[in-house]
Amino acid sequence: MIPPSVSCRACSSACSSLQAIVRDGVYSISTNPSTYTPSLFKAQHVRLSSHTARIRPDTRLSLNLTRQPSRRAFHATPTTNFEKPSPSNLSYRVAVSSSGKGRRFHPIKNAYNFDPTADALGVSKDKNSVSRRRNRPDSGEDAFFVTPIGNRISDHQDTNAEAVAFGVADGVGGWTESRVDPADFSHGLCNYMAQTAQTWHEPAERLRSKYLIQAGYDQVVADPNIRAGGSTASVGVALPDGRVELANLGDSGSVLLRRAAVHHYSVPQTHGFNTPYQLSVIPPRMRAQASVFGGAFLEDFPRDASVTNVQMQHGDVLIIATDGVFDNLNNQDILKLITSRMVMTGAWTATASGVGVSENLRALAAPGGLADALPTPSGSPLSKDPTNTESGPEDGVTLQSVIAATIAGEAKIASVDYRRDGPFAKEAQRYHPGDYYRGGKVDDICVVVVIAVEDSVAASEA
């Protein structure tokens, strides 16, 4: 039981999370943490349908391009300016979970652990476009990347040792009406952003998240294989001292949780309902049509991205996700899901002074950290690389992969639940009260989870 002296915000969040977990039958609660018998990964057999996602490119000519921020309300601590860097170095434990629209979600198969000693996660080096499409992770028109920053044999190897770049991109599905695969743009953008971070030869602190988007976008525009398309983008650059710079363009976004409370959240950028900011490549033919018939294209640029600086601390959890998550899960859903997993695995602990960080955090976030606690089907380990399906069981189940799969799985369930109005449905009812829109929003889902671990604590545990 959480002591009464725990702060109201943290206590109420944690308690409500535990009650939700007990109600859903996810855990068998015991007063001894070693006797928890979690069953996080339940097979979800749902019949999927699809909604119209985004506005068709040919109808954007008549859009009102007045910029107005969307609302994503959170019960949280207020967003603050850049804080003083932590005196201790941090390392980052990262995992990704994704699921394509209309496809069954597999929480084990669709979760990927990031190994900083290996190549970038979610990026294909195959130069053949057909092979690249075939080897893409199961994320549909969403894409992601996670990569160390800089060349490991560069002059700045020590300063860049624990620096990580990561991000997501959400391809605009309306381009399918013009016979364009939206995934080409989003996956190409993530590939080029990852390559830019990997080949960075200066200190990591000089790499800016908005520059990553700009460099990736410039290379997409120059790529002859990507003749048209568009996507949103949300990118982060994390430094060893805990400083994280986040750049967001569109309705993807980020949330930072600290000890059972939301410490930061991004605000979606939209031109109007279901019309987010988006990077675009417009074919000359469509521009010619616009010059004849009039109108304007929905075309934003990396310079329009909003930039936020946050300071991560030991035990913080940062998520970056596409709108497939935020259209189906509200602030309390995300807070309860992450708090429940952190508390029930012992990563966060309740003390007399409040919610604290467990000494076992590093072990829980290490490969196989939760292998003994969670049932993992034989022969179905979490893959380190979405293009490699033959990873061995030594990869195990990590705390960050469990959180990522939990968020993606809950968003998947909510997206096909027509009795539960999600954030997208509530926005639709607010903008179009005469229309009947209920339930979730079927969409591609992608979420990146980053857990900060302090090196001094890690060394003492080792």
Task: Please tell me about this protein's structure.
This protein has a single domain (47-337, 382-461), classed as Phosphatase 2c, domain 1 (4-Layer Sandwich), CATH 3.60.40. It is 26% helix and 20% strand. It is built from 11 helices and 17 strands. It has helices spanning 8-24, 129-134, 182-198, 209-222, 284-293, 323-326, 331-344, 361-365, 399-415, 423-431, 455-461; strands at residues 68-69, 90-99, 111-113, 142-148, 164-171, 229-238, 243-249, 253-257, 262-265, 269-272, 275-276, 279-281, 306-311, 317-321, 348-351, 354-357, 445-454. Strands 3-2-17-14-8-9 form a 6-stranded antiparallel β-sheet. Strands 4, 5, 6, 7, 12 and 13 form a 6-stranded antiparallel β-sheet that branches. The protein has a 3-stranded antiparallel β-sheet with strand order 1-10-11, with no helix packed on it. It is globular, with a radius of gyration of 21 Å. The protein starts with 7 loop residues before the first helix and ends with a helix. The model is unreliable at 1-67, 73-82 and 389-394 (pLDDT under 50).
Give the fraction of residues assigned to helices: 25-40%
Task: Determine the oligomeric state from the structure.
Answer: single chain
Work out the strand percent: 15-25%
Structural class assignment: alpha+beta
Shape: globular
The CATH superfamily appears as: PPM-type phosphatase domain
Measure the end-to-end span. Answer: 30 Å
Uncertain runs with pLDDT below 50, 5 residues or more?
A: 1-67, 73-82, 389-394
Give the total of beta strands.
17
**Number of structural units classed as domains:** 1
Spatial arrangement of strands, main beta sheet: 3-2-17-14-8-9
Main β-sheet description: 6 strands, antiparallel
Top CATH class: Alpha Beta
Q: Please tally the helical runs, counting DSSP H or I stretches of 4 or more residues.
A: 11
Task: Please tell me the CATH architecture by its name.
Answer: 4-Layer Sandwich
CATH fold-level topology: Phosphatase 2c, domain 1
Quick check: average pLDDT?
Answer: 80
Cofactor: Mn(2+); Mg(2+)
EC number: 3.1.3.16
Catalytic activity: O-phospho-L-seryl-[protein] + H2O = L-seryl-[protein] + phosphate; O-phospho-L-threonyl-[protein] + H2O = L-threonyl-[protein] + phosphate
Family: Belongs to the PP2C family.
